[in-house]
Predict the structure.
Amino acid sequence: MAQATKKKPVAKTAEAAVSARIDAQDHFRTLRLGTPFQPRIDALARTQDWYNWAGYRAPHSLWDEELEYFAIRSQAALFDISPMTKYRIEGPDAEAFLGRVTLRDVTKLKPGRVHYTAWCDDEGFVLDDGTLFRLSPTRFRLCSQERHLPWLLDSAIGFDVTIEEETEAVAGLALQGPTSFAALRDAGFAGVEKLRIFDVADFPHDGSTVTISRTGFTGDLGYELFVSADKALSLWDRLMIAGELRGIRAIGYTALNRARLEAGLIVANADFTTAEHAVRADRLRMPDEIGLGFMIDLEKGHFNGRRAILEARAKRKLRHVLVGLEIEGNIPAEHAIVYYKKSQEVGLVSAAMWSPMAKRNIAIASLERPSGDTIVEDLWVEIYAMRELQYQKLMKRAKVVARPFIRLDRRTANPPADF
């Protein structure tokens, strides 16, 4: 005899439908993604000062942006770099492929080494800059500001190479500052003292491995650590416990940005506009126009943009130059217009600060190069300073100076000093 089907109460069915609809529409409440380190960062976030980094919720500051900066320069600062785009590039043709798309000669990059590089479109305009890690003869990791997977895949046609984005799978930390080495050593990473500047090696961690490179974005002694996302929190805890007596502190981007400016380092889409993001044709930049001409290796085989770059050099088509400025006074000139003889507009400041380390008012600016020559004399910047609830226009002298603005011997010391 057939059994009668038991009917669900109408009220409960309707309630379940409403709940399902709310769940389906709840995506807007998660405005930004969290990194594998987010639980630890959220617990330390007193300022609640967040920004969007490639879709992730990242802190401008965590407790005090001024003290966070001094943590970099006098202690050890821990910064979450997980949102940085990361690609695994491997295969028999990985070296040839990367030599074809990037500016530098990849055959000179030995396993266990890292170099700073950039890549261009066919017209020689910079698509992005980043770091290339050679993890083995046939395996690389490329880290960048922007996402380039479709372009990389298109460029790989004809090469025996596999390209995969691993941004979510691999968590990253930057440990920077004079006590960073001591913190790593105290954390039990035996042999880390052998890493020279731009070296990279694997170390045991929590039943797995962590890749540690002697690199960073601060111009200071420092390291970057990469680990699988499921081992991220155990790595964070290991570093924070070992580094407690070394003054380790978590920091946000504002402090890091100040340190990178003192080091004279540039940021894509802050100090120059990448080719894929530029809307106006006059915003495009070739490597020589943003201080990356030193990367170009004309002795190697053909690479993206080679013909255009050579033509621009030969025909003096380079119209801009990125320079360091020292500005009179102590008021930062961020986004100030640069003038020649106080009247002719010749450029724009992209980053500026009063440097506690250099004891100077410093800036990075893009200047015009009329007829291929750079205007370097009789420069002025236009600063608007708030004085008693009213902006006052200040014209301050500026002079072109060499970058980096500070040089710290501890950055490259071998072995690293035990602060």
Q: What stands out?
A: The first helix runs from residue 10 to 24. The first strand starts at residue 49 and ends at 53. The CA atoms of residues 182 and 418 lie 6 Å apart.
